[in-house]
# Entry
Amino acid sequence: MGDGQGKRVVVIGAGIVGASLAYHLAGKGANITVVEAEGIASGVTGSSFAWINTSHPDPDPIAQLRGSAIKEYRRLETQLPGLKIRWTGALSYSVTPSGALPIPGNDASAKLVSRSQILDLEPNLKTPPQSALYAIEEGALDAVTVTHALIAGAEAYGANVLTQTRVLGFVTQNGKVTGVETTKGIIDADIVVLAAGTGITKLTEMLEVSLPIEASPAIFIRYKSQPNLVHTLISSPEMEVRQSSDGALLAAEDYLDDTMDNQPAAIALRTAKAIQNQLHGVVSIEPEWACVGLRPMPVDGIPVIGYLPKVGGVYVCAMHPGITLAAVVGRLVSEEIIDDKASSALCPCRPDRFFQA
# Structure
């Protein structure tokens, strides 16, 4: 075990990743302060489709992390009953020119299901494919609710949460960060964790360090519609849709460009028509809101998790998919910072890879 109990840790960012880090670190006895420029879950967390998606079709450097995601959320459910995760399973299919069957990725729980099995799962589908992949263990969550539950859990362990508090700079001594300068004063720190999503690049620039993290836009839409239209989570060429516990239909779409025809409101109307074309029983479907979320996307597609080179006392946590990985990464990072227990699962994610000669 390390000597981390009582260690002063400042977590910058109160999205789902920062909230998970704060909860796990505080649970290990660290003295936690969360600093958030706006409100809890006010960034990309609040505009996320929030699919706990553990499958990946290609060779995956973070397969070990992805493969632990569901188990870690199940663990969190026992600790924080307010999470309200919907374990509906996910149904995925695509149309290929050859008519070839989909091939399972690295998710061992995904199985090939036939057309009749698809209709058992989703009886409202008008044109079900001949086959699809069904990942029975996957689900989705209300990302805002989960983030608030994690923050409340961190506060129960003694964490101090400062919202509407911007970071102005860092206090450094002998090449090590010893504090964070904020609009509410200086906060002393033994370790500073950067979990501010796309805001991380601005924070590292304050330290004269550059990390190649881009803002990757995606569109999230919420519709008012009838209940029980969608029972699983459907990911198909026509739509990516699920239904929330309150009956709302939630959809995700690719961001195309910023022309008028591709503004979120316009895409929401086109997606509504696609959903009506694909599902029986859609009597009405009204967009409640549609927005663009900016996901933090490292340039090589692999999360950036670990101590920042060239400056001491700073730990970076930037990743996509943040929703899927928040629970497992929160636990592993807390073990690294508090217990000095390096995680092999995080080895492919180290920031050092961008600073090698």
User: Anything to note?
Assistant: The domain at 8-70+143-212+299-354 is CATH 3.50.50.60 (FAD/NAD(P)-binding domain).
